[in-house]
Structures
1.
Amino acid sequence: MSMGFNTIAGAINQAIAEEMRRDETVVLIGEDVASGIFGVTAGLIEEFGKERICDTPISENAIVGCAVGAAMTGMRPIVEIMFQDFLTCCMDPIVNQAAKMNYMSGGAFSVPMVVRSPGGAGIAAGPQHSQTFASWFMGVPGLKVVSPSTPADAKGLLKSAIRDNNPVIFLENKLLYFEGGELPDGPNITIPLGQADVKREGTDVTVVAVSGMVPRAVRIADELSDEGISIEVIDPRTLYPLDTKTILASVSKTGRLVTAEEGVLTCGLGAEIAALVSEQACDCLDGPIVRVGTPHVSYAYNQAMEWATIPDEQDILVAVKKAMGCE
Amino acid sequence: MKQDFKLTKKKLLGKVPALKLLKRMLLIRRLEETLGKLFADSEVKGFVHLSIGQEAVPVGICANLGDDDYITSTHRGHGHLIGKGGDPKRTMAELFGKIEGYCKGRGGSMHVADFELGVLGANGIVGAGTLLAVGSGFSAKYLKNDRVTACFFGDGASNQGMFHEAANLAAVWRLPVIFVCENNGWAEFSPQSSHQAIKNVADRAAAYGMPGVTIDGDDIEAVHAAAADVVDWVRDGRGPVLLECMTHRWQGHYAGDPQPYRDQDELAAVTQHCPIERFKKMLIKRKTINSDEFEAVATEVELEINEAVEFGRQGTDPDPRDFMSYIYAN
Ligand SMILES: Cc1ncc(C[n+]2csc(CCOP(=O)(O)OP(=O)(O)O)c2C)c(N)n1
């Protein structure tokens, strides 16, 4: 397999282009997608034209509602919602229509649609442009939820999401967009949904990290390996369906678990994984499960305050030490 | 008995009110020009949307409102706040993320709000202010406090379901709301023709059973006069009105936007609509003011904005560890 190098933004752009070449029922619908917010979809208009790269009015409900109807009638729309915060403006078509359609119709109608949306704090965008809503969607039966942390994962998973016959919420991270990484060449390289990836192997503590928290966890793993502490970093990549097998196997090996997400801790990914491990691997645990995430609060505009709120490497480090019983 | 809404003739303003309007417009202009620079120098962060060129709309509308009346605003909200009488110092302090700022550094540009002046906040969610306006209209009617709400929103926002639901509800409940559309021809990188099949947003008013009028939003006297008529009508309990003000966005969608999508000739031509220049020239020609009087106001504004910048810069940083406060009301 030959390797290239690209950013996550570039990888997403490639995934969309390749899938559009492969399947002419794939279209991209969203606000200013022809220009491309954060540059992610920039340039696609040149190859695919206005029929397939569809700029819309500012009408999130209509954008997603239209995509659901189109998906029910033979298309594979990719929708972009500019910020995760705006997903609140189109919750009915996502939750009551797309997610329930296959079930309600007894399998008559499926909704092969992807809703892509960037989240995450750290750019002083204030309380209404900074949130991460991954765990909300994990609780909606019928949706699949994906949140990649590397260019290769972003590309492989987005391609699978587009080919999937279910609605997939594909959650990106603004700060990760321009992180570079290896990217395998070839239009048919996909990564199956529902498969976690072990980003670092280790034996002492399992850190399940997602999205922007993955590179932070990896850096802490590197740092602690100098101290002789061996961290296993697992990126679930797909949050629903969650690869519980990989997580449980890792915890059985290490006996210690830290979870790291950017979203609010309340009812979050960490809470879900902690419940999973205490139900199914309680006797493997040698210490408390420790969760890292945003406390029960929004993100301030003031940058020092914003960064004090965002979970960072230091928080992961403290959590790992706590999980090891050395506070 | 149902009576048709009609705009009365423009009244020519005398020296004192004219200079007052000029000053408010200049305050917005200088404040935002300064913000643009501060943003370029990375002293101010985040998303900053400038309303340079659009000053006549909030100033002309708000001159007809009392301190008790409400406004709802947008992501492009500094002008609305200052137009309503907001304090440049507290605005600047907010943009510097300081405790002395309107939102104590929590909100930033997109959320400036002033409880005392009935400014229900700039808003990061396009269209959301239209619904809040229905709410302040509802409370005013219920509490019988005689307050009206001016709801500012863009041509782009008029495509949100939120706007349509707000317009309908305000109309059926005959709420004291003025829907002020600032039609600057752009929604982010999209020209109006690409996002709606009509030219005038005011055409939509008829569909909800409210009057709708379109005026030159860069002519402060036109805005001022129309607003006077509309405020009277609305305060009189005759239900909402949609007032569309045609204006121009001089700058990018956000500070730092290089605007590759914009036609250079169109862009070069926008300044000829300058509401401040137009008004100034008109007033001097009519001999309502002389250029010395204009310069005196301009100098005053210059000083006030310089002071505001220093006030903001020297403000107190919130303790970052205090991030949990204000999430719930006491
Ligand atoms: C619900 C929602 N969708 C999209 C955006 C992104 N956005 C911010 S401003 C804007 C354009 C608004 O256009 P218009 O209402 O005409 O106001 P203008 O920017 O011209 O003042 C868009 C799409 C947003 N902030 N909120």
2.
Amino acid sequence: MRTVEAIEITKQIKEMCIEANHFLSPDMKKALETAAKQEDSILGKQILSQLEENLEIAGKDMIPICQDTGMAVIFIKVGQDVHIIGGNLENAINEGVRQGYQDGYLRKSVVEDPIERTNTKDNTPAVVHYKITEGDSIDITVVPKGFGSENMSRIFMLKPADGLEGVKEAILTAVKDAGPNACPPMIVGVGIGGTFEKCALMAKHALTRNLEERSSVPYLKDLEEEMLIKINGLGIGPGGLGGKMTALSVNIEAYPTHIAGLPVAVNICCHVNRHAHRVI
Amino acid sequence: MNQSVQIPISKETAKKLKAGDYVYLTGVIYTARDAAHKRMQETLDAGKELPMEIKGNAIYYMGPSPARPGCVIGSAGPTTASRMDKYTPRLLDLGLGAMIGKGKRSQAVIEAIKRNDSVYFAAIGGAGALLSQKIISSEVIAYDDLGAEAIRKLEVKDFPVVVVIDSDGNNLYETAAGAYEKKKDEG
Ligand code: SF4
């Protein structure tokens, strides 16, 4: 049994909130660079080169990549041989978010109640997804999620008879409707199967995947590649101002489901697809 | 066509701008998001004056991240304009000269843009760090309690935007994809 201090988790989460909002992962950066080379619309190219410049300024001057520094979504995998001491885990996580958003000059965008809408002023609470795993480490991914693209995300409860064609249709519908609102070029996270909430969670988790990796399931890998080509034929382009690079990647996860259903969730993320990952 | 435009903007200038033009804005603009729009609406309903002159001015749909010490402003890119659609036609009829945001607008807003010779610009979504450098000064002038959503008066220099909806009602978001397709076929 290994012990981990709650305060250590707070410290790591704080740093990860700041890191994720100022630096994109190397695969995201590379995908944007490649997109700038592949784009053939003049305006699209101009936008993409400005996005690269934006990333440079963000890192150099420590100005958040985007002013919507998101709601903090946390994926945390806790090894079953870890004993957390010195405080409650969820409090430690929220304290990390609080410190990160306050000390990191990040925007506080969370309201206490969805109807009354009073700002909590410290960007808490986070949305936390726990998983108990083997071993004695804690694996944390911090995903600050912007709402321009979150608002354009969709769930489709398809019928089994809709099949693969139905899934393709659902993905294209979500992307088309999102258009310029989701700050393209987008990353498209898709969850297929499971239940209503499981497919949404998979779609969100799919956004954190390294863009250089494709699904290990052959038919999903083919689907990811086919959908990327289809999406990039829509003409929406960078900023929605026309062009080829509407999406940088389509990442799909799947899970067993019920004989009567085919749930599909499409979680759209903008080009500011942020995530920081650490293992304690 | 790349060109510089002064803000406040006259109807004559707005009329010359065409969907697809790449424009650099210089002058004074005001920020307002959801909460500030709601309050402006309530102010007008109560028969009171808005906190700023609306005629010929531009509203930027934006709520910045906090400024680091020594900086004018934090990250400062556009937010989704459609959330303001409910309030916008009324402001346009009062003389609002231009809007800066990102994303689609409602038909009612497009009609009001045409009716009033106004213009809707898109700034690059998700380029808040870059755009912050085009802002020379920032001052909260109203609704301080709204924090990031307060109304700010910004002085901007060469602030890059694209004309998306012009005073004739042409909408780049509608035409861009089609135009791209056509070019692809030709090329
Ligand atoms: S959708 Fe993404 S890039 Fe666009 S404003 Fe929101 S967080 Fe920023």
3.
Amino acid sequence: MSEEIILDIKNLQTVFRDEDSEVRAVDGVSFSLPKGKTLGVVGESGSGKSVTALSILRLIDHPGKVEGGEINFKGKDLTKISDKEMRSIRGNQISMIFQEPMTSLNPVYTIGQQIRETLKVHQGLGKQSGNEKSVELLKLVGIPSPEDRIKQYPHELSGGMRQRVMIAIALACNPELLIADEPTTALDVTIQAQILELINRLQDEMGMSVIMITHDMGVVAETCDYVAVMYGGKVVEYADVKTLFKDPKHPYTVGLLNSIPRHDIDVDELEPIRGSVPSPKDMPKGCRFASRCPFATDLCVEELPSLDEIEDGNEVRCWIYSDRWDGDPEVKEHGPKRTS
Amino acid sequence: MAQKELLKVKNLKQYFPIKGGFFGRTVNHVKAVDDVSFEIKEGETLSLVGESGCGKSTTGRAILRLDDPTEGTIEFNGEDLLALNKKEMRNRRKDIQVIFQDPYASLNPRQSVYQILAEAMEIQNVVPKQKRRERAIELLETVGLNGDQVDRYPHEFSGGQRQRIGIARALAVEPKLIICDEAVSALDVSVQAQVLNLLKKLQREFNLTFLFIAHDLGVVRHISDRIIVMYLGKVVEIADKKTLFENPQHPYTKALLSAIPTPDPEVKKERIVLEGDVPSPINPPSGCRFHTRCPFATEVCAEKVPELKNHGFMEEGHRAACHHVDEIASGELGPKY
Ligand SMILES: Nc1ncnc2c1ncn2[C@@H]1O[C@H](COP(=O)(O)OP(=O)(O)O)[C@@H](O)[C@H]1O
Ligand SMILES: Nc1ncnc2c1ncn2[C@@H]1O[C@H](COP(=O)(O)OP(=O)(O)O)[C@@H](O)[C@H]1O
Ligand code: SF4
Ligand code: SF4
Ligand SMILES: [Mg+2]
Ligand SMILES: [Mg+2]
């Protein structure tokens, strides 16, 4: 791989603490994103996807804290730079869009006022040029009659339109990296298709790199180049998208794929993962997935496996692929079984 | 197989009044459900799909008589539900149960699982008092929970387990029909698969009939026998599962299916991207309600409401509401994109 890496995260640790409990929401996340590509971050709710995104932008508030690791963005470690420098990166070079646009738009200002404000803060544009640029941005994200829309308030727009406005605001400063946290989860599929197509098109036109956070394997397959699968605050598998779907290696990844009720093919019996995610306040010390994994051994329960490269660019956090594996030889030979 | 019709909905309309003006008069209506008819056979799963706001939940609520329909009839087991008074309907609720998306909102946090289940049994008087605890434990085990968790409270369970408690409560009264309104939508996929498998197992075991309301077409393909696609308060297409997914005829159904992302990066499919948003159900478009977004629309589409019917070439039981089904199928009429 000789691609230029725009973002390289190493062993990120983000912890929420109060008097009597500690939640290690992000507990050793590592991944890298080549420039101009899309990295999918998938995993069940609570696995630490959003906290990872907020950590990158240094938007973690008390009682949360980034306690370790590196976030190298274009060669600069974001955990080390000053608040001032971070503010200028945020919004100028890295932008974020959230699942529910209504909570991130201010209900008392018009759409136009909100886009102009962003343009003023980050690019110093005045009212007139701000207005022109706002209309241009709304046009870019496919909003019809933008001259009228800039005078409207968020509640006057549909969910899909609001998400387009959020994207317009996020794009206002031509960011190099866009972090999209479940951008289509609250939308209907036909609107989701519009928004994903929009993000794809803008990425091509502007050469942006994208982190696409989602729990939907379909969205991953259709939009991503690389995928990081998270479980219990950790990356358990990292691969290019084709490898991940064709030859998944981590038992959790395989379990996820076997659980999907497919709309495009008939699956007789879904094969769910047994049990549920362990409580974040009470994470097992060994492999976080051990209580649900059909292959777990004593070693898995006792010791946490590390995230290791087992093939070119394919990293897995699982004892099966180590010399110390003393469980089922069959799974070592052929890997966990896909049923669909 | 000549199955018995368990539920028959005919010409159902649900118009919600919009109050306005100085005297709070009704100034307009939300036409949430507008002339919907279908029947469900005993032991089958019929699904209602379509995007949010198309009238799925409203249809379910009308069957449960949570709202009183504006027009239409609902027959259950040959009996007209809309003719029943409140007390009679309460008794009928023994046969028709519902499971909602958010079990937490419908489970009283101050009641233990035992109290929740016993209350359901008591209201419907299905199990004598001294047997209720035993039955509650049995129900928990039926839905895949531990019998010894019977004295725990809802907050002590995970989301998937709470949904199982919701299912146990529905089963407690031995219903015939269960309306599942987005019952698995809030669950993570690994747990959703557990609950889907459970619902299928229970259906086989107790010969249950499901009206399954969902927006996730993967889930729907997995669980349904037949499927109804709705758009803006109207049925646009109805077919058995295989036909609907493999040979859809209505332009909206085709667009909806093509919009779902496929979890396989090697599959490159053609996507019909619909322009714009779903219009408001307050003043829905004239004629075919889909005409403002339909890539095949012609003049007649804005003028005449298309009838939901079987067009000669379609499978038995497959019906679509579109003026141009035949010309689209033969290729005579092409899309404008
Ligand atoms: N402000 C907070 N205070 C305490 N715990 C938090 C906070 N935000 C997130 N967490 C915890 O961190 C974990 C990861 O959360 P999150 O990143 O939001 O998950 P995801 O986005 O993958 O669903 C969860 O267990 C969550 O409860
Ligand atoms: N009580 C009500 N009063 C007014 N409008 C309603 C009411 N209930 C539902 N609606 C409207 O009826 C339409 C159909 O809603 P619903 O049946 O909940 O849709 P779905 O379940 O398909 O998402 C929506 O436009 C909704 O806003
Ligand atoms: S380390 Fe062990 S428990 Fe964890 S995923 Fe691998 S086999 Fe399963
Ligand atoms: S009736 Fe006309 S507008 Fe409606 S679906 Fe058919 S072609 Fe499209
Ligand atoms: Mg999240
Ligand atoms: Mg609904």
4.
Amino acid sequence: MIAETQEVIPALEVHNLSASYQRKPVLWDVDFQLPQGKLIGVVGPNGSGKTTLLKNIMGLMEPDSGYVKLFGEDLEKVRHRISYVPQRESVDWNFPASVRDVVEMGRYRKNRLFKRLKAQDHQLVTEALERVNLLELSQRQISQLSGGQQQRVFIARALAQQADLYLMDEPFVGVDAATEEALLELLTEMKNAGKTVVIVHHDLQTAYEYFDWTVLLNTRLVAAGPQESIFKKELLQEAYGGRLTVLSKIGDLMARKDFPARETGFKEKEGLGDG
Amino acid sequence: MSSAGFYIMATGAVIAAACALLGSFLVLRKMAMVGDAVSHAVLPGIVLAFLISGSRGNLIMLVGAAITGVLTTVLIELLHKKARLQEDASIGITFTWLFAIGVILISSFTGQVDLDQDCVLYGEIAYVPLDLLYTSSGTVLGPRALWVGGGLLLLVVIFVLVGFRGLKISTFNPEYAKALGISTAFWHFSFMGLVSLTTVVSFESVGAILIVALLVVPAATAYLLTHRLKAMLLLAVLFGVLASVGGYYLAAALNGSIAGAMVTVAGILFLLAFGYSRWENSRKA
Ligand SMILES: Nc1ncnc2c1ncn2[C@@H]1O[C@H](COP(=O)(O)OP(=O)(O)OP(=O)(O)O)[C@@H](O)[C@H]1O
Ligand SMILES: [Mg+2]
């Protein structure tokens, strides 16, 4: 039944959304739609409202105006199909819990909170741990993990939720290059399985190669669409105010039509790309 | 051991156990000082309910005081969120002010009420064996405070058992809990309501000033020694009970305040745990 409507109904619609903290506007009349089955980046400078956008989508904050539809429905109706991955720094990792304890939270449901988890839930938790390669560490206390491992715990918890739309806030922060690669592979797998993955990402350079679609944000929506339509000098300049030298690099990149998708040459430090 | 001694220790132990369970979540929620604030702020509620109903330990008084406690947390949040005051300043203003009102009420109505300042501030667990419950045929059932404390402990144990997952997820990651559709407000207010209730019941035993020690110290001690939430809860209860039993004997030996001795023992247990965890860590490193 989902297969039929997949192309038609957008995974996410944000309609004229405005939000503020203490009357300081942080999102202003943001309006866009995202298709299902894509890997989508939400990109913008620091403080541009990316986290605030996710919070409004997940109903964690009251917007000043506007509304959000998920798979054409209100959040309350499709909550079980949406998974939210908060920023890693948003929790206290010294909490007395094991890796497995945290991933199990992905199986908690409002109306089943008083019951024990079932065998099937435990199975899904094990599978999620396996997919992020944390099965051997499943009994470890979460404070004894590296930043990248903690990030993978959050992603495993989201996987255990068995959702169709994933909203992830900065999953690549504090992750080494190898883990980033592995995570990206996992996200691509999820996309190929028909899931929609929306990722807040602050690195403009990698954003181009990682995603199918990009939402470019700076309090207002600058643009949302497939990569080719977004990575244009004018748009990036509008979002970043032309401050970054990155812009000119990206500009060069865009000029070179034959830019290979996974070239890493412009990460100055490593210089791997010219090998 | 005298039956009076046993009653005192048992009452201290059930109250310490209830405090330890709730205190563990207070510590993990970084709300230890909110617990302190609530324990002081219920004072005017207690005195008013006492003046109105003329007796202590009845249900109206307990519920009334518990509501005062929840209102305190609401007031703290209002000052913090709406008036943009720092959280610690909001706590400081709210509870000292409410506590002061309570103190005024007590001092101006002394004589009219059987509630004296010392008892409110420091508790009088030594008087526990004097207030006994009897059956209609005259058999001694034990001290009233022990029954009230036991009822409270039962309530807290049921709450923690049934609400374990809800408390855990709303403590560790409230935003994620909300994203799953779980009401963090429900967990917050039912939890704080129970903390207030516990505070009121513990009042007579340890007094307003020392309650926070029973809430926080055994929980913090357990936190140092384990990485598992369930183990932390069990250890906290163990330390709470040890503190009240040890405190009784210490007070008997020194002929001093029982409540003071209980908290002193709790502090010594904490220091031992602290030393042990340091030693463990350095051995591993
Ligand atoms: N709780 C809050 N109270 C007040 N202002 C806030 C709060 N959270 C965010 N802001 C402000 O709102 C703006 C947008 O914040 P937001 O966290 O959404 O940005 P972001 O795009 O996620 O930034 P970053 O890339 O740094 O994570 C910022 O100017 C920030 O200072
Ligand atoms: Mg952010």
